[in-house]
Amino acid sequence: MQTRNWSYVQLGPAHTNHNHLPFNHLNKSAFKYKFFSYMGVGFALPFIAIGWQWYKPGGYKASTA
Fold first, then answer.
1. Whole-angstrom Cα distance, residue 41 to residue 47?
2. DSSP code for 11
3. How far apart are CA 49 and CA 10, in angstroms?
4. What one-character DSSP code corresponds to residue 28?
5. pLDDT value, residue 58
6. Is the pLDDT of residue 61 over 90?
7. What pLDDT is attached to residue 63?
8. 31-39: long-range contacts, CB 8 A cutoff, minimum separation 24
9. Which stretches are transmembrane (predicted)?
10. Which of 34, 14, 36 is CA-nearest to residue 22?
11. How many Å apart are CA 30 and CA 2, to the nearest integer?
C-alpha cells in the first residue's frame, strides 16, 4: 500500500483574507456606537418581550376590573 504525500500546495492556497468581521473596526467611535447599540438591543429584548406579555390585553398583569 502506498502512502500519499500531501503538501500545502496540493491542498490549496493559504488563507490570506483576514477581513472576517462584517464591520469596520478601524473607526473607533462608529464601532463603539454600533457595538453598544447591538449589545444593548440584544440585552433589552427579553425584558421588552416580558413587558409585552405582561401588559398586553389579556396578559398577566392586565387589569381584570
1. 10
2. H
3. 53
4. H
5. 83
6. no
7. 62
8. none
9. 35-55
10. 34
11. 57
Location of C-alpha cell 463603539: 32
Q: Which of 47, 23, 45 is nearest to 34 (CA)?
A: 23
Distance separating alpha carbons of residues 21 and 31, to the nearest angstrom: 12
The tens digit of pLDDT for each residue in 1-60 reads 666 665 555 566 666 666 666 667 788 898 899 889 989 999 999 999 999 999 888 887
Cβ atoms 41, 48 nearer than 8 A: no
Tracing cell 490549496 back to the chain, one arrives at: 12
Do 49 and 41 contact (CB within 8 A), yes or no? no
